[in-house]
Amino acid sequence: MSMIGGTPKEHGETIADHATYEGAQKVVSQLIEADIPAKDIAIVGRGLRSVETVTGRLGYAAAARSGAINGILLGLLFSAIFVLGTPDAAIQLFIGVMLVGIAIGMLLSITTYALLRRRRDYTSITQVIADHYEVTVLPRSMQRAREIVGRTASQATLGHPAPAAAPASEPPTSDPPEYGERVDPPGPPRYGERIDPSNQNLLEHPGGGGEQSR
């Protein structure tokens, strides 16, 4: 990921939105493979926030260790300059210059920590992350880019077909009553409800369903 200051001269339209930067990178790779001009594509992070991750406690030992590593690089630089100036120099001189570079690096790091330890006594890494990432394309390549993104989405949908819908359940059917079986009459009708003639006879003669008494 490259971060260069400045405001882009042209703004494109959003063709894809992803929650992760890796997802936006995949879309950009697909567009470039389809011969979309790279200068027409941009990844725009929305909802930027800074996250500082604490990696450890900073003390004199850690400061000296960090300074020694930087001193090795400084010693290599001094040794290379010295060797180029005097090609016939002894190896002991080369090692001596390396040790001097390490000592200078450790001294600078310890001095810096001694001055700043009251304000900062830990090491950390700062990152700028976004809530989501939009892939934008300039208008001159918009139609072609939408076709590519839509084709990719269709292939992903075909690769994972939707599950078949469950068959609708049939309503339960009630068997007709057998001969001589008592049938409970329905409750009284509500106001304005239409009454079936057969049900009306049951309401008027509740005992009519059985055998008449002699």
Primary descriptors:
5 strands, alpha+beta, single chain, 43% helix, 5 helices, 3-stranded antiparallel sheet, two-stranded antiparallel sheet, elongated, 214 residues
CA-CA gap between termini = 102 Å
The low-confidence parts are: 208-214
Spatial extent as radius of gyration: 41 Å
Q: Shape, please? A: elongated
Number of strands: 5
Largest sheet: 3 strands, antiparallel
Helix fraction by DSSP (H/I, runs of at least 4) = 40-55%
Output the structural class: alpha+beta
Percent of sequence in beta strands: 15-25%
Strand order of the largest sheet: 1-5-2
Question: What is the H-and-E element order?
Answer: EHEEHHEEHH
DSSP helical segment count: 5
Query: Average pLDDT, to the nearest integer?
Result: 76
Can you describe what's shown?
The chain has 214 residues and is α+β, with helices and mostly antiparallel strands. The protein is 43% helix and 16% strand. The protein contains five helices and five strands. It has helices at 21-33, 60-85, 91-116, 142-159, 197-204; strands at residues 13-18, 41-46, 49-57, 122-129, 132-137. The strands form two sheets. Strands 1-5-2 form a three-stranded antiparallel beta sheet, with helices on one face. The protein is elongated.
Summarize, please:
The chain has 214 residues and is α+β, with helices and mostly antiparallel strands. The protein is 43% helix and 16% strand. The chain has helices at 21-33, 60-85, 91-116, 142-159, 197-204; strands at residues 13-18, 41-46, 49-57, 122-129, 132-137.
